[in-house]
Each structure stands twice: as structure tokens, then as C-alpha cells.
Amino acid sequence: MKQLIRPKVLSGNIAVPASKSDAQRAVLCAALAEGTSRLTGMGKSDDEQAMLRAVEQMGAEIVPISDTIIEITGIKSLPEGLHLSAGESGLGLRLLTCVTSGFNREVSLTGRGSLLARPMNFFDTVLPRFGVQVSTNNGFLPIKVHGPLQGTDLQVDGSLSSQFISGLLMALPGSRKASSLEVIDMKSGPYIQMTIHTLSQFGIVIENEHNRFTIPGKQQYRPAHYSIESDWSSASYWLVAAAIGHPVSVSGLTMRSLQADKSLLKALIAAGCRIVAEEDLIRVDGSGLRAFEFDATDCPDLFPALTILAAKCDGVSTIRGVNRLIHKESNRGIALQTEFGKMGLKIDLNDDLMVIYGSGKLHGTEVDSHHDHRIAMSLGIAGSIANGDTILTNADAVSKSYPDFWEHFNSL
Ligand SMILES: O=C(O)C1=C[C@@H](OP(=O)(O)O)[C@@H](O)[C@H](O)C1
Ligand SMILES: C=C(OP(=O)(O)O)C(=O)O
């Protein structure tokens, strides 16, 4: 799909969609619980749909109650000969691989699109140490696992992705023996805190002391009534739009959220913005905008929105953690450099540092999303302040996390 973006003032309020990260965790917890859980605030992104389809194949029963409420009755036993797909979701695939390793069954797992090129070699090295037979396609999909995973004490490397750690934390409580997991070089730590919090809502206990997780065995997931949070990652595009001068506000977010991307507020403050949070609404006053420095190592999904912010700030802004973007839906550092480059923005990638030479000026031209939802959304907001029209190809990539993005964009 091609999207034409005309320069315009984005004015109005946006209620952002559900956090797909929160929703995927909750769906899987509910599928593992004995009994019926009720999830409210579900979204309809591709990643959420893929997780729902997977747990249904695993034997969970899903009853839609309304557009945003579902009931899930947990699986009784895992069917034989399962072939699961996580769609294009890195999180979905990594959680499902660990969780299905908890059963005495052979399960094969795959995905599509960019997920086929994302590394899975963590499983080759780590799962056998929990007694799981595993084979990958030289560290890529498809994967075959045969559990059951057995609890043990292990040190694991957390530098590639927190998603593997989240997966182990979801699977290990079901093992007969207790485990401890010491995570060395942990990245995206807030996502792991989020996993532990969601697990606690479904009755699972995990202790964490300085990245050493203690996981008692023989735990049983309990059904829950769970309210899925609105998404700080989706909100980042609108909050940055507000910071660069659009009179747009965002509703539905909670300030108490554990979501990593709530850190956007810190970046906005570093860039001289004033945040106004009134009841359910957040507004941003960007009248004092200035070039900024920010470390996004543990909130890597903020890079695309922060690139727009830096483009609008006069002077050189730096964002640390760009090496963490190599294995996302696209190589996001390169994708941002290439596409914003076409719009006249100079970006250097100096090892782990993204250096952005902002001037406040962008020009409209033909750009491409690299089939990456976050690149698509950031180019949309960039196009709104560009000089001239922007044509974005592969704009439909937004459906991975925010299917209504263009409808919301056009409504403003
Ligand atoms: O656990 C999660 O929900 C996620 C963790 C992050 O991945 P990494 O841990 O690989 O940084 C993030 O980029 C991804 O969009 C969602
Ligand atoms: C990287 C992302 O998701 P995932 O890793 O779950 O595919 C994302 O949503 O930006």
C-alpha cells in the first residue's frame, strides 16, 4: 500500500491501541491457566492475532465477548504434531518456543516475513541445558523443540534480546524442579519486569535480585481478570508529533505502566519539552525544543519516534543503543538513516551511537517503510512537517502493532 502524506497540522486527540507486548503475555498466561480468564482492552494488531491463533491451536478456547474483551479457557493437554506460527512477532515466537518446550511433545515453530531472518541461536545453546531437544535452521526458523524442560540453575546471556528471558520465565515455573537464572549483560530490562508483573497476576511467583531470578517449580497458572494497558510505543509517535508543534493529545495511557517506552517522557524532557498530564490526557509543550542526548538501549522501539524529534531540534542530537536495532523487523538504524536521508536529514551511525544533525527542515519525497511498522509510522509524522508531499510505500506494515494508524492520522 502507498500512502500519500501531505504537510498538515495534526490536531485532536488520539486514544492509542492496546500494548501488543502486554496483550501477548496475557493471552499466553491465560492459555496456560486452569480455568477461564477474562482479558479486557485487547487490540487487533497482527502480533496479537498471531498469538491468539497459536494458543487456539495449542488447545485454548477463545470466546469473544466484545470487540475488546475475550475469555480464554486454558489448555488441558497439548495436542500432538503441533506446527505453530508466530506470524511476524519476535516476542510471540520466543515466548511460544519456551512455553511449548515445557511439554513432553514435539512442536515445530515458524513465522513469516522479517522473522525468518531474525536470530534464534539462543535456543540452540540454552534449551538443551534445560533438557530440551532442539533443532533450528542454523540459528534461524523453523525450530523444533521436544521437552519437557527441567528446572536447573543457569547463567544466560541477555544481550541479544530480553524476549528469550521472558520466555524462560514463563516456562520454568511449570517445571517440577526449581530454577535460578542469572542474566549477564541484560538488555531491555523493563520488558522482563513487565513479564514478571503479568505472571504475578496469573499467580506465578518469581523473585529477582540484581538480575538473578529465582523460580520455584511446580507452579500452576491461575485464571485472572486482566486489563491490558494502552501502548506507550504507539503513543510515542503522537507525543513526538505534539513535541514538534502539532496540537495533538493522547489518551488512555497509565503513568504507572512498567512499559519500557514510557521512557519517552524522559527523552522529551531532555529535549526541553514540558509534559502536561491531566486526568486521562497527555499533552506536550515543545516550545522550548533543543537538541538532546538520550540512551535508548533498554527502550529500543523508541528510536523511530526519537529520530523525528531530533530532526526537528536545531543542532546535533545523539541516541545511544543503535546496535540493538540490527535484528528488528528491519535493520532500523540503517532504515532510518536511509529513509530520513531521502528527506534531507543527515544521520551518522557511530558504533552504538546514532548522531542526528537536526535543522527543523525535511523535504517530501518517495520513501519506503522497509516493511517495518515503526519506520512507517515515523515517516508518516515526518511527512506532516515536510516541505512538499511524501509518498510512503509499504505503508500497510503498521498493522503489526497499530492497524488503525493511518485512519487515526487522517482523522487529525
Ligand atoms: O518483550 C517485549 O514485548 C519486547 C521486547 C523488546 O525486544 P528486545 O528485548 O529484543 O529489545 C522490544 O523491542 C519488542 O518490540 C517487544
Ligand atoms: C521489535 C518489535 O517486535 P517483535 O520483536 O516482538 O517482533 C517491535 O514491535 O518493534
From TrEMBL:
Transmembrane segments: none annotated. GO terms for biological process: amino acid biosynthetic process; aromatic amino acid family biosynthetic process; chorismate biosynthetic process. One of its GO terms (cellular component) is cytoplasm. It is found in: Cytoplasm. Gene3D superfamilies: Enolpyruvate transferase domain. InterPro entries: Enolpyruvate_Tfrase_dom, Enolpyruvate_Tfrase_sf, EPSP_synthase, RNA3'P_cycl/enolpyr_Trfase_a/b. It comes from the Bacteria. Belongs to the EPSP synthase family. This is 3-phosphoshikimate 1-carboxyvinyltransferase. The lineage of its organism: Bacteria, Pseudomonadati, Bacteroidota, Flavobacteriia, Flavobacteriales.
